[in-house]
Amino acid sequence: MAHDRAFLLSLFRKMVLIRQFEERVKYLFLEGIMPGTIHQYNGQEAIAVGVCSALEPADVITSTHRPHGHALARGLSVEPLMHELFGKTTGCCRGKGGSMHIGDLAQGMVPGIAIVGSSVPIATGVALAFKMKKEARVAVCFMGDGAINEGAFHEGVNMGAIWSLPMVYVIENNLYSASTPIFEMVRVNKLSERAAGYGIPGVTIDGNDVLAVHATACAAIDRARGGQGPTLVECMTYRITGHSRRDPGNYQPDEERKQALEKEPIRRFAGYLLAEQMASEAALEDIRHDVEAEIERAVKSAMAAPHPAPEEALEDVFV
After folding, report:
1. Are 177 and 247 contacting, i.e. CB atoms less than 8 angstroms apart?
2. Residue 147: C-alpha distances to residues 12, 126, 170, 276, 295 (Å)
3. DSSP state, residue 104
4. 1 pLDDT band (50/70/90 cuts)?
5. Overall domain count for the chain
6. Quick check: 144 and 174 in contact, CB under 8 A?
7. pLDDT tens for each residue of 241-272
8. Are 49 and 15 in contact (CB under 8 A)?
9. Of the candidates 58, 87, 90, which has an alpha carbon nearest to the alpha carbon of residue 101?
């Protein structure tokens, strides 16, 4: 699949934006400036960017307790995301969601769902609504490898399969569910093999190759939009940070982590762009500086923004 230079650079910028956003908020949390906690997306950027770049504006994604990367890849702006993490009323969820519940349905993203696996039946329900309304829209469900052993995974994927819903289920296999290695939780060699039990296609790909992710996502999304039902896509990757901000990741072997850093998606894609003469090192550095400036502007505006008024706790409540 041939891509023009502008598209390739847009992928690089989006991945850099996610990485630098995560790095900036990490230090804001560690310094006690930002409230709450975070689960970072470092190392998995190619998956969110590769998949979301294949979507149409009317399509919808669901996320996890690690949602920042999905939000930025889907097109949510840095400023409302940063405001949300600061708990400000100008945040994308009016300061009521925080880190684990980032999203904006108007931008095609259901706010992040922190309960592992619970986004699977929700995304399936979104796809069912699309089918019942005869809308040519697709739902994409992002999940971690830990979700595949939850009952909600089985129920959601089975329903998507038997009703041939316009769904794509994306497993971000970073090898660890919190600190538990994936090989201690399953007996299959590839998580995508589970697709056979539902009678749908399953594929395992290199989740650190943004172009491979994009191509696979395009095929799965086209299949779903064409009425052929769901696909289970397993993207192999690695979380080059702890599970959450308090996790030093000591369970990750030193050699394993070293190899992961050598294969991480941003460095890899930068090397591709340079080798293919799609960009110079100076051009890539300009993108990094531009992203850094955008994030710093968002931090400053978020710190100056108002907190929600106490009475706002009674708004957006449905009984």
Report:
1. no
2. 28, 19, 11, 38, 31
3. B
4. low
5. 1
6. yes
7. 888 877 888 899 999 999 999 999 999 999 99
8. yes
9. 87
CB 170 within 8 Å of CB 206 = no
Q: What is the rounded end-to-end Cα distance, in angstroms, of the chain?
A: 50
Whole-structure pTM over 0.85, yes or no?
Answer: yes
Q: How many residues does the chain have?
A: 319
Residue 43 lies in a domain: yes
**Residue 131 CB-half CA count within 13 A:** 22
d(CA 289, CA 300): 17
Q: Which residue has the tokens 């929700």?
A: 122
Task: Report the SS3 class of residue 210.
Answer: helix
316 is a domain residue: no
The Cα 314–Cα 260 span in angstroms is: 46
Q: Give the pair of three-digit tokens for residue 105.
A: 């349905």
Mean pLDDT on 115-142: 97
In a domain, 101, yes or no: yes
CATH number for the domain spanning 118: value is 3.40.50.970
